[in-house]
Design goal:
Layout: H1 2-31, E1 59-64, E2 70-74, E3 84-89, E4 95-102, E5 117-120, E6 125-130, E7 134-139
Length: 146
């Protein structure tokens, strides 16, 4: 008798746990418009490009600051010059150069300007890869990069 009871209990539990996801899926499908299928799928065959900021010299890596500003590593003009650097783009779209005069990445990628940057919010430092020197660190001023 006990064995039969546990068999029935096991079957009931399996059915219950098997039906709960189906019932939940049905209720979310009704909330989504009846059939659970998105009404319009994104069209990836024709990507939309929107220019948010102009005037950057071959932007590369970016780092988001805690205040919503964006640091952008600029690779320069790809000539033998010192046009690379790092700019900051504020949330309202204003641009300002915070590091200038770094060597541009040349066409053979032998000389690296500011290709890689990162911001550490805890230590308030900006780090990057600079030519053959290696890693460099720039401490953020107390009033921020502005």
């Amino acid at each position: 008798m006990k064995k039969r009871f546990f068999t029935y209990l096991a079957v009931l539990l399996i059915l219950a746990f098997g039906l709960i996801p189906a019932i939940y899926a049905q209720s979310t499908a009704e909330e989504a418009g009846g059939n659970g299928v998105a009404t319009s799928a994104p069209d990836y065959s024709h990507p939309q490009v929107e220019v948010l900021v102009e005037g950057l010299r071959n932007p590369g890596e970016m780092a988001l600051l805690p205040d919503g500003s964006l640091l952008v590593a600029e690779n320069g003009t790809f000539n033998d010059d010192f046009s690379a650097g790092i700019s900051m783009v504020t949330a309202d779209g204003q641009i300002g150069r915070i590091v200038s005069g770094m060597p541009s990445i040349d066409r053979d990628y032998e000389q690296i300007g500011s290709a890689f940057i990162a911001f550490d919010a805890e230590s308030n430092t900006l780090t990057g890869l600079f030519d053959d020197v290696g890693m460099w660190v720039l401490a953020q001023p107390a009033d921020g990069f502005s």
